[in-house]
Amino acid sequence: MPAISPPALSIIVPVYNEQGRLPATLDGLSEVLSDLSWTAEVVVVDNGSTDRSADIVRAHPSGPVPIHLMSCATRGKGAAVRAGVLATTSRYVGFCDADLATDLAALSPALAQLGAGVNVVVGSRAHPESDVQARHNVARRTGASLFRWSTRQLVPGIADTQCGFKFFDRATADAAFRPLRTLGFAFDVEVLARTQRSGAVIAEIPVAWTDVAGSTFDPLHDGWQTFAALAGIRATLANEQTGTRAQRAARSQAFLDMPAGDVARGALRGV
Ligand SMILES: Nc1nc2c(ncn2[C@@H]2O[C@H](COP(=O)(O)OP(=O)(O)OP(=O)(O)O)[C@@H](O)[C@H]2O)c(=O)[nH]1
Ligand SMILES: [Mg+2]
C-alpha cells in the first residue's frame, strides 16, 4: 500500500457517552477544518461508550476532513487523549471536548501561534480577552478556583489548566503524553507541567467559552479524584528527578513497556 502522508493537524476528541452532543460537534469540526489551509483529521477516542457514540461517528458522512474512530481500553479523558495523540503522526496535534464549549474560532489564532514557533497553545477562560458565558454553579466555581490555586506551584503562570482546548507541535506533544500517568480529568496539569519543565514555549490564548448541558464531569465522583491527582502528579514528577540517570531510564522504560491497549501509531481506522 502506498504510504499516505499524515495531515498537518490532528484534533483528538475524547468521548464517553456523547450521543447527544457529538453530531453537532462532528459537523462543526468538519466545517471549520475544511476551511483551513492546512490538511487535517479528526480522531474520536471512545472508552467503550454504552450509548450510540461510536455508531454516530461511523455513520458521519465522509467529507474532505477524515474522521477516525479509535477505542481506548483504559477509562478516562486523559487516557483517551493520550491514546489519540500517540496514534497520530501529524505535525501538530491538539484536542477539544465533545461539547465544543470552546468556540472553534480560537483554532486559527492557535494555529498561527504554532506556526510562529510556539510549542503549546492553551485555550484559557482566565484570559482577560476571553468571553465566558453561563459558567458553572457556585459550588463548581468554588471548586474550580480552589483547583486553580492548587495547581499554581505545579504549573506556575498558567491561569487555566482545564479548558478543553490545547494544541501542540508534534515533538512537544509526544514528549509530554508518552510518559503521562494521570488518566482522568487532571491530565492537563501533568501535560502542562511536563511541557514547562522541558522549556517549551507556552501561550495562553483567549477563547469564547459557553457552558453546554450534558457534562460528563461528576463533581462528587470526579471532583475529589481530580484534586487527589495533583498529589500524584507532584510525586511522579519529583520521583522522576531522583536516582541515577540509569535508574530514571529503567523506571520510565518499565512504564512504557506496560501494555498500552490499542495505542499504536498508524492503528487508526477510517470511517
Ligand atoms: N474517552 C473518554 N472521554 C471522556 C471521558 N470522560 C470525559 N470524557 C470526554 O471529555 C470531554 C470533556 O468532558 P465534559 O463532560 O465536557 O466535562 P468538562 O468539560 O470537564 O466539564 P464541563 O465544564 O462540566 O463540561 C468530553 O468530550 C467527554 O466526552 C472518558 O472516560 N473517556
Ligand atoms: Mg465540557
UniProtKB/TrEMBL annotation:
Highest classification ranks of the organism: Bacteria, Bacillati, Actinomycetota, Actinomycetes, Pseudonocardiales
Q: Which terms in the Gene Ontology molecular function aspect does this entry carry?
A: transferase activity
A GO biological process of this protein is: protein N-linked glycosylation
Keyword Transferase part of the UniProt annotation: yes
Q: Which UniProt keywords apply?
A: Transferase
Protein known as:
Glycosyltransferase
Presence of keyword Transferase: yes
Q: InterPro entries of this UniProt entry? A: Glyco_trans_2-like (IPR001173), Nucleotide-diphossugar_trans (IPR029044)
Q: Where is the Glycosyltransferase 2-like domain?
A: 10-141
